[in-house]
Amino acid sequence: MGQASLSSMQALIIAIWVALVESRALGYSTLNLRFSPLMTGLVVGIVMGDVSTAMTITASIQLIYMGMIAPGGSMPSEPAVATAIAVPVAILAGLQPTEAIAVAVPVGLLGSYLYQFRFFLNTFIVRLTDKYAAELNDKGLTLSIIILPTIVSFALFVPAMYIGLYYGAPVIADFTASLSGGRIFHILDAVGGGLAALGIALILQVIGKTKYLVFFLLAYFTAVMLKPLGINTVTFAIVGAIIAYLYILVISESAESN
Q1: Separation of alpha carbons 230 and 170, rounded Å
Q2: pLDDT in the model for residue 35
Q3: Of 73, 120, 180, 183, which has the most beta carbons under 10 Å away?
């Protein structure tokens, strides 16, 4: 456990990051950052001075969001909000990664309600957009499409996240730390592991094809069999790239011969 609570500056920096991501202030690149807990986890780790622990925790959170889609830009649970709260709580309380999922899921659900409220606030700005569009006012459209929605997002997410981090995270951390190791968190730990498996299953269902399932099974059982050797992820990535190249090479030559 690195520290007893978040400082005011730490809470503010993380809150600004979440607002930046949720507002899409950097264009569609921030949309990918919003959907990826790993990026928010990295920022939290840097701010709290414990990147390795933050990324270990975030990796488990990432798994449950792998198969989620965002129809209309709306997620059923906000990954950035969930990670921004769950990772500091887990670090402060010394929770296991799967136990952190028990914090991330409800927080992410609350974050989705906050994002929906942002949509509601933006409906008032849309009227300005219609007005400026009818007038062919370029500067007005820039104001109503980019600047004002960004300001609304910052005004909404920065205070909410700051309060949640500065005042709420230490309280949740103390509460969860007192329960950690007990029967309740044993159950939550098991459920958290199941949610991670569900996330992997969803991503396979969304982007996977039955004929490619053998590669997933190959990777899984190879990782299990070689675990005693302590091989790192980079080595697995290189081996995977070589196998993918050989597969493409065989397919290409087969197509040319036909």
Answers
A1: 35
A2: 79
A3: 180
φ/ψ of 94, rounded to 5, equals: 70, 40
CB–CB of 49/2 below 8 Å? Answer: yes
Nearest CA to 176 out of 52, 44, 79, 87 is that of 87
Give residue-wise pLDDT tens across range 42-62: 999 999 999 999 998 898 888
Residue 88 has pLDDT above 70, yes or no: yes
Q: Which of 11, 9, 12, 29 is nearest to 21 (CA)?
A: 29
Tokens in use for 245? 């190249």
Which one is predicted more confidently, 234 or 160? 160
The separation between CA 35 and the C-alpha centre of its own chain, rounded to angstroms, equals 5
- Return the SS3 of 50: coil
Residue-level pLDDT at 1:
45
How far is Cα 120 from Cα 152, in angstroms, rounded to an integer?
11
Task: Tell me the two tokens of residue 217.
Answer: 């099974």
Task: Enter the pTM of the model.
Answer: 0.69
CB within 8 Å of 163: residues ≥ 6 apart = none
